[in-house]
Amino acid sequence: MSQAAIVALPLWVVGSPKPALLSYPHKLSLELEEEVGDQMKLLQNCWSELLVFDHIFRQVHYGKEHSILLVTGQEVDMSTVAMQAGSILNNLVLRAQELVLHFHSLQVDRQEFVCLKFLILFSLDVKFVENSSVVKEAQEKANAALMEYTLCNYPHATDKFRQLLIQLADVRSLSMQAEEYLYHKHLSGDVPCNSLLIQMLHAKRT
């Protein structure tokens, strides 16, 4: 795939193993018993946030300011993005890079990354969940685990827990903009209508 083709879609989406998203609820260590319908509702609510957050965390560990590492392992120069991506996508990528810098400055590690994923997945904003008590329990446990971990492992950074949650809100905002961009590309015929991402996008909008 050429670099021009790669930057035609959000860089955190292209080449990512979309079916693997469906396994997130089954990997949770909280051993929560959920209805399949609830699993899908939770996933439909946050799939774009998970993809964006995966992209950001990958860049934090990649550690190169002037290029982006795709999930495929391919590197894309920021100059290529600026020249070929178009203004909307370029702005999305630049916003993502700003979040990368914020998370890097907070020294976010893999344990915190996992806890933040729990918080993304088990959102209390999801409507029509059959077992809302399970979602609330998972949210509370993830919050408590993250707070305890940051206080124990980063005692010098007493505000880290709050700062991580602030950045998580920015991830959500960026993911919503990425969804709008993807939907626009879909309406323009630039994204196959039978792709899993588009199916998830339609499911979230219904």
TrEMBL record:
NR LBD domain sequence ranges: 1-204
CC terms in the record's Gene Ontology section: RNA polymerase II transcription regulator complex
A Pfam family annotated for this UniProt entry: Hormone_recep
Subcellular location: Nucleus
Signal peptide: none
BP GO annotations: hormone-mediated signaling pathway; tissue development
GO molecular function: lipid binding; nuclear receptor activity; RNA polymerase II cis-regulatory region sequence-specific DNA binding
UniProt keyword Transcription, yes or no: yes
Chief location category: nucleus
Alphabetically ordered keywords of this record: Activator, Isopeptide bond, Lipid-binding, Nucleus, Phosphoprotein, Receptor, Transcription, Transcription regulation
SUPFAM superfamilies: Nuclear receptor ligand-binding domain
Superkingdom of origin organism: Eukaryota
The family this protein is said to belong to: Belongs to the nuclear hormone receptor family. NR5 subfamily.
Alphabetized PANTHER family for the sequence: NUCLEAR RECEPTOR SUBFAMILY 5 GROUP A (PTHR24086), STEROIDOGENIC FACTOR 1 (PTHR24086:SF24)
UniProt protein name: Steroidogenic factor 1
Provenance organism: Podarcis lilfordi
